[in-house]
Write a structure and sequence with these properties.
By secondary structure, the protein is an alpha+beta fold. The chain has one domain (about 35-230): Umud Fragment, subunit A (Ribbon). The chain has 4 helices and 14 strands. Strands 1, 2, 3, 4, 9, 10, 11 and 14 form an 8-stranded antiparallel β-sheet that branches. Strand 6 (about 115) and strand 7 (about 120) form a beta hairpin. The longest helix is centred in the N-terminal third of the chain and has 22 residues, at about 10-30. It starts with 10 loop residues before the first helix and ends with a strand. The relative contact order is 0.17.
Length: about 230
């Protein structure tokens, strides 16, 4: 009696299984670990520019029930100065990116563009001196330049853009619930300054759109000096 012939998978089946595993891993990583995000507006200038492509750590704020879990997959809590990607509270299907300014339980106030936490002026080195004090005699814009004081509720954060004069943030839509936080911005993996020409778009409510191939402008439009910069 001859021995049974060992079972061998066909090459097509091996390719199919490899693709399925790769897709499952990609979905798992995107859902639970890391996600790509593109900066669409100038609200975080000059630290983050329109066209910066980021990797967002979605696992960093996850709970660790044991010291072993903490050692194998280090997590942390949200801290002042962190740059977070989150669901926009007024339209949860949209993602926003801002910096954590006020923490739960703190009292925050903006006076003549300057930030105060519990009555103490907040030093903000990440702004690189780009926020001037409103000069005497100049009318400050309500809510943008003078805001509060307001207490940040527990389980919430007060978020602001670095480009304070051009940022729709917690001054306008309130504090951010912790449950809306998606992750912490980690690194710029690509930055592209789109110089393709703008042309009028068609259809109701349309404005303009860019035409031409991104591929043809890849080398000239890529900001090579920003590649793999850590987000701070």
């Amino acid at each position: 009696m001859s021995p049974a012939t060992p079972f061998r998978k066909s090459a097509l089946r091996e390719y199919f299984e490899s693709i399925v595993i790769a897709v499952i891993l990609a979905l798992f990583i995107r859902t639970w670990i890391v996600q790509a995000f593109k900066i669409p507006t100038g609200s975080m200038e000059n630290n983050l520019l329109i066209g910066d492509h980021l990797l967002v750590n979605k696992f960093v704020f996850g709970p660790a029930s044991t010291s072993l879990e903490q050692a194998l997959a280090p997590t942390t809590t949200v801290r002042r100065g962190d740059i977070l990607v989150f669901k926009y509270p007024q339209e949860p299907e949209r993602d926003f990116i801002k910096r954590v300014i006020g923490l739960p339980g703190e009292t925050l106030e903006v006076r003549q563009k300057q930030l105060y936490i519990d009555g103490v002026k907040l030093e903000e080195p990440y702004l690189q001196g780009q926020i001037p004090v409103v000069e005497s005699g100049v009318i400050a814009l309500d809510r943008r330049d003078n805001f509060g004081p307001i207490a940040v509720p527990h389980g919430h954060y007060f978020m602001m853009g670095d480009n304070r004069d051009n940022s729709e943030d917690s001054r306008f839509w309130g504090s951010l619930p912790d449950a809306y936080v998606k992750g912490k911005a980690m690194i710029i993996y690509w930055s592209f300054e789109d110089s393709r020409p703008l042309v009028p778009d068609t259809g109701p409510g349309a404005t303009v759109r860019r035409v031409g191939s991104v591929f043809l402008h890849f080398f000239s439009g890529t900001r090579w000096s920003r590649m793999f910069q850590k987000v701070t």
